[in-house]
Design the sequence.
C-alpha cells in the first residue's frame, strides 16, 4: 500500500506540473502575440504607438473628440518582417533619430528566445504525458522544462534591460521627445515565466522521487532460500 500511495503522489505532482506548464505556455504565447510590449503616446501626431516583438501598431487618439472611447478604436498594425513596409518606413525616417522605435533591432533577438521557450514548452508537454510511466521521461521532462524556464527568463531579461536604455526608452518626434513605457504584454509573459519556474520545481521533485524509487527497487535484498534438508532429517 505504501508503494502504491507514493506512486499516486508522484502522478499528482506531475499532473500539477503539466497544468502549470500549460498555463505558462498560454500566457507566454499571449504575450508574444500582443503588440503592447512598449507603449508611447505621441501627442503631436495624436496617436498611441504599440511596439511589439513582431508587430508595430498605432491607435489614433480620436477619444479627444466628443463621444469617442479610446479602447473602442481599432489598432492599425504593420508586420515587422514585411520588407516592403520596412523599406517605406526607412525612407520616411531618414531625418529622425535612428535609435527610435521604428529602428529597434533587439526585439527580434528577444523574440528568438521567447519562440524557443514556447517550442521547448510544447516538447515538455509531450514528454510530461509519458513521465508517470517512465523515470527516463520524467528526467527528460524536467530537463526540457528547465530549458523552457531558462530561455524565457533570458528573453524577459534582454527585453527589460534593453527597454530601459535611453535610446530605446525615448522616442524622438518632429518637435518633441516622448517616453515609452513597458506594456502589459511584458508582464503577461513574465507571469508565464514565473509559472514555468514553479512547474520546473514540481517536475524536478517528481523526477527525483521516481529515480529514488528505481534505485530502491534495484537494491532490494533477495529473500534467503529455505534449506532443502532440515538438520533433524540429516543422516548421522
Sequence:
Amino acid at each position: 500500500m505504501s508503494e502504491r500511495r507514493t506512486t499516486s503522489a508522484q502522478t499528482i505532482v506531475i499532473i500539477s506540473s503539466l497544468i502549470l506548464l500549460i498555463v505558462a505556455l498560454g500566457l507566454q504565447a499571449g504575450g508574444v502575440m500582443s503588440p503592447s510590449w512598449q507603449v508611447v503616446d505621441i501627442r503631436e501626431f495624436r496617436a498611441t504607438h504599440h511596439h511589439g516583438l513582431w508587430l508595430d501598431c498605432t491607435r489614433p487618439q480620436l477619444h479627444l473628440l466628443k463621444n469617442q472611447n479610446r479602447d473602442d478604436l481599432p489598432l492599425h498594425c504593420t508586420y515587422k518582417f514585411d520588407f516592403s513596409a520596412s523599406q517605406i518606413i526607412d525612407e520616411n525616417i531618414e531625418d529622425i533619430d535612428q535609435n527610435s522605435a521604428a529602428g529597434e533591432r533587439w526585439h527580434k533577438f528577444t523574440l528568438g528566445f521567447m519562440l524557443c521557450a514556447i517550442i521547448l514548452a510544447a516538447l515538455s508537454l509531450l514528454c510530461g504525458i509519458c513521465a508517470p510511466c517512465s523515470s527516463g521521461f520524467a528526467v527528460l521532462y524536467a530537463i526540457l522544462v528547465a530549458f523552457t524556464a531558462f530561455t524565457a527568463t533570458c528573453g524577459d531579461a534582454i527585453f527589460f534591460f534593453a527597454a530601459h536604455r535611453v535610446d530605446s526608452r525615448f522616442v524622438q518626434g518632429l518637435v518633441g521627445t516622448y517616453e515609452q513605457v513597458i506594456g502589459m504584454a511584458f508582464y503577461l509573459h513574465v507571469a508565464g515565466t514565473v509559472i514555468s519556474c514553479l512547474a520546473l520545481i514540481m517536475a524536478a521533485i517528481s523526477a527525483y522521487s521516481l529515480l529514488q524509487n528505481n534505485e530502491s527497487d534495484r537494491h532490494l535484498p533477495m529473500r534467503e532460500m529455505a534449506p532443502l534438508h532440515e538438520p533433524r532429517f540429516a543422516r548421522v
User: Anything to note?
Assistant: Confidence is low (pLDDT under 50) at residues 1-6, 88-103, 222-226. The helical segments are 2-33, 83-92, 106-130, 135-163, 166-169, 184-218. Residues 121 and 128 are 10 Å apart (CA to CA). The first helix runs from residue 2 to 33.
